[in-house]
Amino acid sequence: MILPIVAYGDPVLRKKAEPITKDYPHLDQLLENMKETMNGAFGVGLAAPQVGLPIRIFLVDTQAFAEDDEFTEAEQKALKNFQRTFINAEILEEEGDEWAFNEGCLSIPDVREDVFRQPKVTITYQDENFKTHTEVYDGLIARVVQHEYDHIEGVLFTDKLSSLKKRLIKGKLANISKGKINVDYRMRFPLLKKKR
């Protein structure tokens, strides 16, 4: 089932998410719904807060980037085959010189800005079977993981912009929270007035 994606301005996007245990109710169904929601919106990642749940889960599927000619054949192959479920993730280390990449977010449609992030990340997490992994990612995979990880920490990519850029997009962000935007996927807008 495709879930509505929570729009910018909803308080759930600002909460630090809580860890879960393997007996979290209907976890398999939630993961399936999140995957369907992410794919339906043509996203490369989706975090539980984006579907209204302040819990430490996010999905990453970088297959959409695999067709981009900007990347080497080896990078394209890695991107094509990268699909992960991250539960109770904790970033252990971020390394390297920051680099800029134009990011967007399903919760903040039609806003794209260059964001600086470090190119290498070490993360520990549990998969859908609650097996613990510690892995190192770099390049675009690291960036997507960092972006989704920020969601479970209550951080949005717009928080990483300069104060000038933030002022320039302030009106767009206000319109998103009021539902004054056209998107081709289901969304839930925090400030949309309910019709009586």
Count of strand segments: 9
The residue-averaged pLDDT reads: 94
> Could you name the CATH homologous superfamily?
Peptide deformylase
Please report the number of helical segments.
4
List the helices and strands and how they pair.
Blueprint (H helix, E strand, L loop, with lengths): L4 E2 L20 H14 L4 E3 L9 E5 L11 H8 L2 E13 L3 E7 L2 E10 L2 E7 L5 E7 H14 L10 H15 L9 E2 L8
Parallel strand pairs: 1-9
Antiparallel strand pairs: 2-3, 3-4, 4-7, 5-6, 7-8
Written overview of the protein:
The protein is an alpha+beta fold. It has a single domain, classed as Peptide Deformylase, CATH 3.90.45. The chain has helices at about 25-40, 75-80, 140-150, 165-175, and strands spanning about 5, 45, 55-60, 85-95, 100-105, 110-115, 120-125, 130-140, 185-190. The strands form three sheets. A five-stranded antiparallel sheet has the order 2-3-4-7-8, sandwiched between helices. The longest helix is centred in the C-terminal third of the chain and has 15 residues, at about 165-175. It starts with a strand and ends in an 8-residue tail after the last strand. The model has no long low-confidence stretch (mean pLDDT about 95).
